[in-house]
Automatic annotation (TrEMBL):
Sequence ranges assigned to domain N-acetyltransferase in this UniProt record: 7-163
Name of the protein in question: RimJ/RimL family protein N-acetyltransferase
Organism the protein comes from: Caulobacter ginsengisoli
Length: 182
């Protein structure tokens, strides 16, 4: 387990699959996430889970609260390039009522600490849909990530196009934020 202040990241277990399947089919949840969402079967969720076992370049976890253990989302480090020390990071919080309570910040800080201090990575990349102000405020405003570019009209949501905001953080950017753990 990878422990934060309020959350821990742990491996996805078979018992998590019904909840992850429900989230995978939640249109409102996916409105603010990248990629394309198609309704998926529980069988496809199981197949995805089976592929996690042998995938060293992609680490996926569930986010579990420490206070009263419950799964509240997922986080990842994917497309890990061990030679260059870079990876892509993404996160999703499922229950709407838990947003804005510090779990997202603790998750991002925990992933950065693990990536930089344990894995020895140099930088993390991510992207945010232009209209997702909460994610932008979290990553850029609270967690030290920098906006590094935009791809105009990349995402199509709700009948219109939104920019894809490219963000990144280096181990050097993270160092001044380590006081979070004090």
């Amino acid at each position: 387990m990878i422990r934060g202040r309020r959350i821990q990241l742990r491996a996805v277990e078979e018992g998590d699959l019904p909840l992850l399947h429900r989230w995978a089919n939640d249109a409102e949840l996916w409105r603010n996430l990248g990629g394309w969402r198609f309704p998926s079967s529980l069988d496809s969720t199981r197949a995805w889970f089976a592929g996690l076992k042998s995938d060293a370049a992609n680490h996926r976890w569930v986010i579990e609260t420490l206070e009263e253990p419950q799964v509240i989302g997922t986080a990842n480090l994917v497309n890990i390039d061990w030679k260059n020390g870079v990876a892509f990071h993404g996160m999703m919080l499922g229950p709407m009522d838990l947003r804005g309570k510090g779990y997202g910040r603790d998750t991002v800080m925990t992933v950065m600490r693990y990536a930089f201090d344990e894995l020895g990575l140099w930088r993390l990349d991510g992207d945010i849909i232009e209209d997702n102000a909460a994610s932008h405020a979290l990553y850029v405003g609270k967690c030290g990530w920098r906006e590094e570019g935009r791809q105009r009209g990349w995402h199509y949501r709700a009948g219109r196009r939104w920019d894809r905001i490219l963000v990144g953080v280096t181990a050097e950017d993270y160092r001044p934020l380590e006081s979070y753990w004090a």
